[in-house]
Amino acid sequence: MSSEFGNILRVSVFGQSHGDAVGVLMDGLPAGETIDLAELQAFLERRRAKPDGLSTTRAESDTPRFLSGLQNGRTCGFPLCAVLENKNQRSGDYASLENKPRPGHADYTAFVKWRGFADMRGGGHFSGRLTAPLCVAGGIAKQILARRGVYVGAHLRRVGGVSDAPFPVLPTPDLLARVAAKPFPVLDDAAGERMIETIAQARKDCDSVGGVVECAATGFPAGIGGALFGGLESRISFAVFGIPAVKGVEFGEGFHAAELRGSRNNDPFTVRNGTVVTETNHCGGILGGISDGMPLVFRAAFKPTPSIGKPQNTVNLSTMTPDVLAVSGRHDPCVAHRAVPVVEAVTACVLLDALLEQGE
Amino acid sequence: MSSEFGNILRVSVFGQSHGDAVGVLMDGLPAGETIDLAELQAFLERRRAKPDGLSTTRAESDTPRFLSGLQNGRTCGFPLCAVLENKNQRSGDYASLENKPRPGHADYTAFVKWRGFADMRGGGHFSGRLTAPLCVAGGIAKQILARRGVYVGAHLRRVGGVSDAPFPVLPTPDLLARVAAKPFPVLDDAAGERMIETIAQARKDCDSVGGVVECAATGFPAGIGGALFGGLESRISFAVFGIPAVKGVEFGEGFHAAELRGSRNNDPFTVRNGTVVTETNHCGGILGGISDGMPLVFRAAFKPTPSIGKPQNTVNLSTMTPDVLAVSGRHDPCVAHRAVPVVEAVTACVLLDALLEQGE
Amino acid sequence: MSSEFGNILRVSVFGQSHGDAVGVLMDGLPAGETIDLAELQAFLERRRAKPDGLSTTRAESDTPRFLSGLQNGRTCGFPLCAVLENKNQRSGDYASLENKPRPGHADYTAFVKWRGFADMRGGGHFSGRLTAPLCVAGGIAKQILARRGVYVGAHLRRVGGVSDAPFPVLPTPDLLARVAAKPFPVLDDAAGERMIETIAQARKDCDSVGGVVECAATGFPAGIGGALFGGLESRISFAVFGIPAVKGVEFGEGFHAAELRGSRNNDPFTVRNGTVVTETNHCGGILGGISDGMPLVFRAAFKPTPSIGKPQNTVNLSTMTPDVLAVSGRHDPCVAHRAVPVVEAVTACVLLDALLEQGE
Amino acid sequence: MSSEFGNILRVSVFGQSHGDAVGVLMDGLPAGETIDLAELQAFLERRRAKPDGLSTTRAESDTPRFLSGLQNGRTCGFPLCAVLENKNQRSGDYASLENKPRPGHADYTAFVKWRGFADMRGGGHFSGRLTAPLCVAGGIAKQILARRGVYVGAHLRRVGGVSDAPFPVLPTPDLLARVAAKPFPVLDDAAGERMIETIAQARKDCDSVGGVVECAATGFPAGIGGALFGGLESRISFAVFGIPAVKGVEFGEGFHAAELRGSRNNDPFTVRNGTVVTETNHCGGILGGISDGMPLVFRAAFKPTPSIGKPQNTVNLSTMTPDVLAVSGRHDPCVAHRAVPVVEAVTACVLLDALLEQGE
Questions:
Q1: Would the ipTM clear 0.95, i.e. be above it?
Q2: Domain range holding C100?
């Protein structure tokens, strides 16, 4: 129930930040799919912390070991389990947090739910560390999707008050690849520079900042999804809200659609190369929960990292008295830029699942 | 897979707009719960079209017949099936749409998915009509939740460019009840007047307008939910995106959190009456996917009704040539105000499910 | 969780024996499938009580009303809901049972589980009456399967100590049709006569008798199912044990395989018409949970009807003192012969689900 | 979908016989449960091949490494992943099988399903090796159940034509423990000797033999389970049929009930120590899919090991011509005796799941 998503392709992540290892189990992958491990590793590198002052200085090698599901570099029809060892923990950093929950973090709610038994060292199972195995799953799904003509890509749409350009109506696979290759995943590098400054300034202030990731999938066929609770929005949002720190998800115009009139928000149909298409894509490629053949486009809002150096009010859970906390240790002043491949990963898993469900 | 949500409490809706009936099946309700049918009917009335010029003029009686699951006014442990007959269809209105998909509507995607076999009269299974059985389910869930001290309420937060006041940090059950009793569900009636004008103007212009619904649940205990894909945000958003026309969901500060710094977005803990609480509620009552005991708060964005009288470009699917469509028939110029109880309904089902899963 | 089975095709039954109606919801049917209602009705007749002294004298019309999912006689892609009204209840017959649970029946366990709130009139949701909507679902699945070359049939393999002949290694669709057309569904009519006597004698003795149903499916393609918990045996047995009174399920040689040696139980492979086949079918068409292209064959054991006229020891739940009960009212002295189409029905739903999951 | 079972407690196994490792993921365990690793290891030893001439000579150390879910010897609320490395493979033994499927084995059906891509070395994911991680999961579930007063045990009820005594009506936890401690798990050691001879003789004849395992659970509370497809029989049989080689499952009298009359098969109720009990237990502790407070009792039939030394007819899949196969390599002449703890393991997982679902 808790760490799993998908219908035909089920993806389960496991592990705690400071446990032995984190990993992922994928059940339902098609057989005979070649997995390019170098390409997968390159994808995982996009998520890793870089020594750029914008991220935590904890560095993990993040090279998955495949315990099952692969033979001679190809999926073999059986569940695939991939493991990433945890090597660089510093649990000491967290010792003081046991009784003083960090504001904005799961410390307190986990304490209530598991009555103190949860392994919350380093954020436990809530840690951003869990996005590494998610990227293993998603990197595999992306390779299988690409072989079917479906490309998933994302960029950092906003950090604090700074905005990148939006995706064009028809993002090409080439554009998605170019953004993915950048050290800082934006369309407009000047905007990217300002975002970097924003993050660096937050860090300097012992604070953090939030952001928005925009994700697109091209080549996804029309007619996939379903009415009501079978809709693609439901399935994608379920998975994306499972990424730590996500607090909002919107498709196409999203919240902005609420301000529009129908005549402005509807996407008129037309014919191009014998196929029905729309000139605009306000609906984000989904009508009635079903893909319309246009690019799928959505955005996910990430809250600012809750772990900050600034002193904050909290409560000592042993004494139930007010206390003050200044979080030390290695923390990202922003998670949104590192979340870009994570959003791609989770989306790729959902889209592959939806395709497999249709027998495609 | 398609018209169902929930884990322990599973809710399935069925029916087409112009079929014989619509209905809902609830499997997993606790036994021995009294259902006040008058209270349920009053809840259903909130969703019904009113002769106020803001809604379709199609009127349905919307009195459910219970085929199973109730005995002597109490749930009896077995699946509850409730049916609402369809009586007031005018399928002739839709005959012309068969070959000319409405922009912004599921006509085209349903055509692709079901190769012309879908019963799309009146919007078929995508119709807003399906929100009536959802409200039957949600109205029942609300009564059971209230008995456990959990109250779910919503208001219209925005229509077009007009905004209502937000919920206060601690909305009382009384406040939620007062909003529910209003003919137009807003906190600030002056804002409500401007919203009504906005909708009426859209109607006059043969157009439509979108809106945002804000929903809150008070009294929900801390410690419910789970990490990653077991999180309340995932479960709530899955269900809410299943409501027709929803294009965005955000919790607490939501997309606005992306613009905030951690020091501003975190909710400091404090102690009140021996319980850990937060002074603010930027997180919408959910940390790490788990409830923190504060009110759950989220917003859902509804796009403007796609069916509008204004001529729009479309494609004749028989001839695959461009065409023009002006939708006649009875359509709501805005669905957001009628969606207020629907959002409550779906939320109540998810929260009851989450409580039952914990054995509460 | 409770009254539902299936992955892609989900079948949910609802209703209590003496409630307003019983019914079934099918979500996930392929669109565009013609449903021959006369053929469906003929299938339902096979389950109905006949005035042959072997069954209850409660007679229901059992003509389903389709509330949704069908348009112009074809499935329309949306959930199909079919309802059978209950008209011939005599709840008075059951009034005395409220405090005195029938041995062998769910009266007592339902009382414990639902603390007295369960509607157990006429057996409530446990009643054989619920097999009527199951047959609606299964009759529809059978028609869709037949169009794909898959035929499901069953016969009464044993009643008390009397055995019918087993299915041949390769039962033809024609054979299955011929058995289905018989008033008493056996291969060997002489054995059938002895079974009828056995049932009639049990009735005369105010007693009841059990039986075994054998079910076969021909034309089911090889390669459907999966290892371990994805196996066809798991899925079929899950559904078949959901039929009231089933206490055993075995595939191919089943329990007898335990007495065999491998050299005798293995089915050697050979080639026929360019296809790999087996000469024998000890495995019941399933190896490693996956179909091998031979007929699927399994048997289900039905216990004797627990409601009998003979006095039995029970407990008065109000006083918690020993008591004696002689069940009056209309009860089948054997359910196995009427269960033959029910086993087919449930099996057809599972097999169609498994085919759909493979995109077939 | 394929290698997973459970609702609240989900158990997924992964790995191929000759891959790097096999393992299990348990999601949904209660937090704070102490796991006694020595006791777990002792349970795993019961499944291991012993140098007794009755089993394969492949020996694995079978000491699980816990990657997640445990902290300081206690469950920590997060998914538990346990891994058993594969060390003693001899894939050469299987090279000749690639084109010549073993009769009675999944070789052929896996070939069809995964078009030759399945890693079938050593039986792949179908191998008995996968029962080792199942026992890790079940051994953990057994410890948690015992803490709640529920004890699960099994014995070898039959091998070939030799039968052990059945469990008494009220097996005590002590009896279950004594059988578990025996090198050969039977109630009647003389019968056990004859079973051992039967297995040894089959081995000598380059053949194999099947068997029946009987399993009981005591202390399981009344009122757990549900009507129809929520029944305990459905859930238990689903999981037990997932164990390789199981071809039949029956509860209480099972298939024998078909031969009984109701007056003989019903279990009369009586009162003992203020609780409703039954004197007999023909129903195996389950009425209407719900536990009645008596011991749960069922049997599982295991077919003879398909891999035998005797020459058998098969087909060369490359040339599609008849061929002959004599399987070499290490194979168990009987799997039923080693399956005794596996049946316990799977049952314990299902029962714990059912308890957790009720919030117990």
A1: yes
A2: 4-357
